[in-house]
Each structure stands twice: as structure tokens, then as C-alpha cells.
Known about the structure:
This protein is of the alpha/beta class and about 750 residues long. The strands form 5 sheets. It has a 10-stranded mixed β-sheet, sandwiched between helices. Strands 1, 2, 3, 4, 5 and 6 form a 6-stranded parallel β-sheet that branches. It has a two-stranded antiparallel sheet with strand order 7-8. Helix 18 links the parallel strand 13 (about 525-530) and strand 14 (about 550).
Amino acid sequence: MLALFTVISFLTGSLSTSDTKVPQDVHSPTENYLLWMWNNRLYVYSAAALLLGFCFLLQVTGRKIKHTKDSGSKDSGPKVQKAAKNKISSDEDADVHVSGVKIFYGSQTGTAKGFASELSQEVQTLGIPAEVIDMKDYDPDDRLADECVSKSVCVFLVATYTDGRPTQNAEWFCKWLEEASTDFRYGNSFLKGLRYAVFGLGDSVYVGHYNTVGTNVDKWLWMLSARRVLSRGEGDGNVVRSRHGSVQADFRAWRVRFLSRLRALAGGEKKSCSGNCKSGASCKNRKKHGAQEEEEEEHGSEVELIESSSEEEESGWRDEKTSRSVVDMEDLGNIMNSVRKAKGAKEDQGDGQLVKLSKHNGATKTEDEEERREMITPALREALTKQGYKLIGSHSGVKLCRWTKSMLRGRGGCYKHTFYGIESHRCMETTPSLACANKCVFCWRHHTNPVGTEWRWKMDPAEKILQDSLEKHQNMIRQFRGVPGVKPERYEEGLAAKHCALSLVGEPIMYPEINTFLRLLHSHRISSFLVTNAQFPQEIRNLVPVTQLYVSVDASTKDSLKKIDRPLFKDFWPRFLDCLRALGEKKQRTVYRLTLVKAWNVEELQAYAELIALGQPDFIEVKGVTYCGESSASSLTMANVPWHQEVVAFVQQLADMLPHYQIACEHEHSNCLLIAHNKFKVNGEWWTWIDYDRFQDLVQAHEDSGGQQSFSALDYTAKTPSWALFGSNEQGFDPADTRFQRRNKTKDISGC
Length: 752
């Protein structure tokens, strides 16, 4: 370019000179010199430009040479050092691609924490350092960015808690991560270089909240440009929907894939090969990864649409990420294509059924077509067995109540003995369904039982459940033979169960053959006390007559019920109210069971009175909550347990607001009182007890008549003894027994 400019200047200068020639003898020598300079000015300009260009070229060339020497000296240093080290030791020549694995866990019940420990041990067997970190002890604002350059791999095992929120120990971490992902001050590339994997723990029965924390953590990390080394795994506590049968099995399957991926990373692999190269060329690593893919398929690694990070998920995240800044016109087409793909994927999912894709892109069976799974998983069976449950079949259980043990020894019976005349030593506590539709804060089972909103498991016949229940209950009674203090006559009576409390755990009314089970109980002349959590109104209406039907009324307002019972149903409040209406339609004995939790539901007297007017129960049991010990699944403490005097004060205020009810009985030992309808007070005397033989005759006649011959609660009453009445000196303790005070003993919290 410079040479061309010189040639043009020369030609132009020649023309100018030829046009401006004049006689030289007309002027003086100085004038002639200046005139010559003027006439040849273009030559002068060209020479000056050429000189300046040459100087500039020399300067640029010198800088390049210097830069090349500097970079060469920097690169040659490590190479020389590395070569020297190779001569010393052949083991030191490999680069460290993974310096360690940091496993973060967010856990409420300890499951995620246990998974973190298991994964840590497996990682260490690979020779890679591993560290387990509680999220509450980690400050992401100060430390997370350091992981981008530390060559470590971060694993996040996070559980989803109530309403899709993080667990208590993960709240701050997730809050910071969410804010950072949308804060322009951090920028989209704040965590660029961070390698991570996420496994979420959830339960698909919580529609709308399933594994939201795991999904969000994955999304927020991705929005900050962290690099996912493995697709997100999801563990499902719902054995019906769980991909491998339980949350533990889901984690084990994901763990196999993660360890395989970790080995590849440690070997220097940057990204796993999908086999679908954009260029269409043959992949060098196709054979290498083919064996790995086959190994994963042997472990059941089918691609499932609901699991892991999908393309439509990332397209949505990408839209959210780009929404933080101005969208260029050239990016608009990509965004629209992503929206179309997501829309098409949703349409392909049909009417909400979960479809799995095989390795050959063929659709396999839908979930509804697959064989139903058992409710009790191996891990759940182990946990419940440790708690003293005798499990029956795949979804039932029986356990010996502490009041049964107490009455065998003549140490007093439960509040049902005081209120209704149950012989506690002849009472069998069982359930045909371990699953429940609530996760109450005061559940004495610490939420080890499964949850669900409908029956989706294998079902055992009612005959087998009852037979095994009676057999296992009898075997537990036999263990008291010869035990000091056990009364022989009560031991013999206890071998033949006369009452059945369907209140062990779970929601008995969920069992599809509950009516068959109740009829079998009555055919053995065993009374039935059925407790339901007021979430299945139609099942209550379809229920055959029972000796006494309970509805748990744990709160009187929508907000407090959600806080205390933590129901699974989104429409839990309409269901709750409809259950109370359904209870009012029953002709047999009905009971509201109120559990008082101090500072949570003891201030709602007027609301309780309105609910009582809605269902018109025969009886209202008011009991102070029982503290079952510290549990990570509940925030309940001893401060929430009311004193007996506080329960009495509450009941007195409530009874004053109910025109047709009075306080009838008290069982001070259980911190419980009974409010009864005035129709059970005959000639100034209470008749709250039950004539059990009379009930069996009435229910038998009802069955023989095909349901035509009905009966009411007043048809099988019995007189209440004076010691059971409210205000008596005995305070509900049977004088035929001897009260026993425990000292320095661990309290047994089992019982109905």
C-alpha cells in the first residue's frame, strides 16, 4: 500500500513539474532553490511519507520480536522444569484435572446427609479427596467463586421441603444463589469455570413442588455460567413414581453415573461425547464412550423426560438469562426456536402421562401400564422395624400400644378406657395403610411412613391383613407371659383382641378395601375406632358403620391447618370442610379430635366453635400435643406442649361457646378432656361409654338386612362411671388399677 502511494505521488509530481517550468535565469539562486523545492514538493512529501512508514514498520516489527521472545521464555520455563521432573519421577508428569470433590448437602430429615457421606466414601476409593459440607456452614459469597479455579468438582445434594422451599440448613445458600443469578453486579460469568452436579430429593405426590429446590439450584448455577458435568438426578420418595423404586435406589443409580463421569474427568476428559457431533464427522471417542454408555444402560440409565436437565429446561433458563440484558435482533431467532421446541415437547407429552424413551428412541410402557410397586421399600421396612412395628404384607402394620402394656400390669388404661370403656389390654392398634396425606408437625412417627394422595401401590387382601394383624398382636402379648407385675387374668384376656384402634399411623381410609376390613373386624366381634385426617370426604360418606369415627381437627383456620398438618392436597381446606359435613351425615358415634399446640392453634376458639357447628359431632376430644423428642422433620419443642391446666382452661372456654355441649370426662394422665353432646346426658348422668355387645348385634342386623336396618349412636350407650367424670378426685384414673410414676426412664411415646 505504501509503495503504491509512492508511485502515484511520483507520477503526479512529474506532471506538476512539467506544467510549472519557467526560465531559471530570471531569479536569484535562493529564489531558484525555493522555486525548485516548490516545483518538486510532491517528491519531498513522498520521501517524507516513505521515511515515516519505514520507521513505523521497524517499530512494529521490533515489538513483535520482543513479544515472541517474552512468551517463548515463559512457555519454555515450565516445559524445561516439567522435562526435568520427568527425568526424576514418571509419576509426576500427569496434570491434576480434579483436585477434589466437595459435596454440599441440604437435608431436613438426614437423608441427603447420609447420601453425602456415602458418596464421599465412594469418591475417596477412587483416590480423589472428598469433603462433605453442610450448606449452613458455608458462605457462598466469600468462597464459592474460589471453586472456579481450584479444579474441584462441586456436588449438591439438596432436598425440597414444605411448599417447595429449601431445607433449613440450605435456606441462606439458596437465597444467595438465587439473588446472585439475577444480580447484574455479579454478572453472567461469575461462576465460569465451576464444575458441578446436582441431585435433588423430593416426593412427586407434592404436585407443583416436586424437586423444585434441585431444579432451581441447577438453574441458578447454570445462569452464572457454571459447567454441569452430569445431568441433574432426581430421587423420588413416592415409590410408585420413583424411577428405580425408592429415593435410595434413585440415588444409587445416579451415583454410578457420577463416579463414572468423575473417573473420566480425572483422566483429563473435558466433556462427555454424545455421539452426535455437529459437523457430522465420525467421532474419535465414539468407541471409547460406547462401552461406558452400555455400562450405564445395564444400570437402568434410560433417558426419562421428567428427570435431569432437559433441552427445553435450558431453553427456558436461557430466556431468563437473556432477559437480564437487551436482546439483540440476531438472538431473537434462537429464542423463538427454543420456545417452539419447548412447546412441541410439551405437546408430545400428551395428557400428562409420564413417557419413558428407550435407547432406540422407542416409547416404552407408560407408568399406568407398569406393574404397581409395593408401598414399603427395603429402607422403609428397616426404619419401621427398628421403631417396633410388625409389618404386614406390603402396606400394613401393627404395634403394641404402651397403654396395652400398662393395663396388663394393672397400671391404668388409656383415655379411651376412661371416656368409652375400652379395655386397653384387649385393644389392637393397627392400620391397613401406612401412607398418609399429611405430614403433621406432631407426628410421633417422625415422618418415616410414606405419603400419598391416592392409592397407587400393590394391594393386599383384607382377610390376610386382619389374620396377620391378630397373629402378630397375639405374639407380642405372649412376650409378657411370666413378666413380673403382669396380671394372669388380663394376660389371658389380652390374647383375644376385642377392640381395634385404626390410628397407628397413616390414613386407614385410603385403603380401597377398608369397608371389607371393617366388616371382617365386626364379624370377629371386634369393635372399630377409625381415625381419619379429614382429607377424603367421599371415602367418609362411603364408609360402613363403625363403632366410633374420628376426624382429626388440628386447626380451625386455613393458614394454621397448612402450618400444622402440612397437607399434600392443594385443595386441602375445601376437602377438610367437606369431611366435617360428611361426618355430620353419619348416624353412628362421631368424634372431633383436637390436638392443642401452644403458640400455634390455642387462640382460635371462635373458629373452632364454627367448625363444631358445621359437623355436629357427638364428642370432642381435646388433647395437649405429645412431644416425641427432637426431630429434624419438625420444629416442635417442649415449649409447644401445654400444661394440663392450660388444656382445661381452653376446654372450659370452648364449652361455654357451644350451646349443646358440656365437659363430660377427663384423663389427666393423657392431658386430655372430653366434651360431649347433651343428648348423652340422661337424667343428669353421662352415658358416654359404649355397650360393645349391643353394637355388635346392631351392626350384624344392619349387614343381614342389606343396610336397610339402621341404628344411631344412642342405641349402644352405657353409663359412665363416676371416677371418669370431669371434676372427680381420680381425674380419670381407674381406681381398680395402681398408678405408676416413672422415674429417670425414657418416656415411651407410642400409643393412640
